[in-house]
Amino acid sequence: MKQVLASSWALLLGMMLLMVGNGLQGTLLGIRGGDAEFSTFQMSIVMSAYFVGFLGGSRLAPEMIRRVGHVRVFAALGSMISAVLILYPVLVDPISWTIGRVIIGFCFSGVYVTAESWLNNSADNENRGQALSAYMLVQMTGIVVAQGLLLIPDPSGFLLFILPSILVSLAFAPILLSISPTPAFEATKPMTLKELFDTSPLGCVGMFLLGGVFSAQFGMAAVFAKLAGLSLGQISIFISTIYVGALVLQYPIGWISDRMDRRTLIFAVCVIGGIGAMVGFLLMNFFPALLLAAFIIGGMSNPLYALLIAYTNDFLEHEDMAAASGGLIFINGIGAIAGPLITGWMMGVIGPRGFFLFVAVLLFALAVYALYRMTQRSASTEVDDTTSYAPIFPSSSPVAVEVAQEYYIETALEDDAEDADTRL
Fold this sequence. Notes:
By secondary structure, the protein is mainly α. Helices cover 79% and strands 0% of the residues. The protein has 14 helices and no strands.
C-alpha cells in the first residue's frame, strides 16, 4: 500500500476532491430544488439526467481520449464541470438544471475514465488490488466529507454552489502537474447482451435492478430528506450514513463472498437490504431508525455491485471477463436512468416513504430472482475455485471495472499456476 500511495498520491488526492465536489452538488440540488418548489417529478428528471450523461460519457470518453489524449480531455471536461456548477444558482429552473446534470454526468464520467486509466497504468500485477482498494476508499471518503460541507453557513445562497466548483478546479492541479503520459487508450469490445445474459442471467438482472437502487440513493436521497422535513444537519448525517455503510461493509462482504456460494450471499444481502429499507418505510419519523435504514441500505447495495461482477466472472473464461464488463455497465446504466424517475413518481403518489418502498421492492425482487436461479442450475464452481472479489462501487467508470477485471484475471491465473505446481 505504501508503494501505491507513493506513486499515486496526487491522483488519489485529486480524485477525493472531485468526489467531494460531485457529492456536494448532487445533495445540494436535492435541497435547493425543494426550496425552489420544484415538484418531486421535476426533481426526479433532474436527478435522472446525471445518469443519462454518465452513461453517454462512459461510451464516448474512450474515443475522445484516443483522438486528443488524456490531458486535454481531462482539462476540458474539468473546465466544463466548474462552469456548470457556477451556473446552477444563476439558472434556477428544472430545464436548465436537467441540461446541467446531463453535462455534469457526461463530464464526470469522462474524468473518471481518464483518471482511472492513469491509475491502472501506475499499478502492476503486485499492487493492482491495493490500488483499486485505495481508489474506492478515496471515492467514498470524498462523498462522506461532502455532506459535512452542507453545514457551512450560506447566507448569500451561492457559496455552496461555488465551493464544489472551486474543489473541482483545485482537484486538477495535483493530477495534471504530477501525472506522466499514459499509453494509447484501448477500449475492450463488449460482449453482446444476449451472450452476457445467456452466460449469467442473475448477473444481468441484478445489475439492472441495482442500477435503480444506486441511482435512488445517489440522486433522490436528498430529495427524500427534504420532502420528509429533515433539517440540514439531519440531511447531512443521513446521506453520509449511506456511504459510511458502503465503506464499512464492502470488505466483510467481499471476504465472505470468496468463501461461499455467491448466489446465497446475493440472496442474503438483498433480503437484509430490503429489510433495512422497510425499517425506513415504517419508521420514517424516527430519525435513529432512518440512520439504521441508511446504513443497512448503503452497506448492502453498494458491495452488491462488485459481488454481481465477481459472480458473473465465475461463469466466464479469463479472456472474456474484460469484454463482459462493458455489457454489465450498460445494463446498470439503463437501470440507473430509470431509478430516479420511478422513485420520484412513487414519492409523488404516496409521499416520501416511496423512496424506501422503491428500494425495498427492487432488493426483494432481486432476492427472489436469485432464489429462483438457484433452482435452475448448480453452483458455477467449487468455492475454492471461484474468482477473487475486488472492491468496486457503482459510481466508478468502465475503466475501474476493467481494472477490477484485470485483477480477477491475474489472481485467477496465479491460482491456476499454483494448482499446476502442486500437482507436479
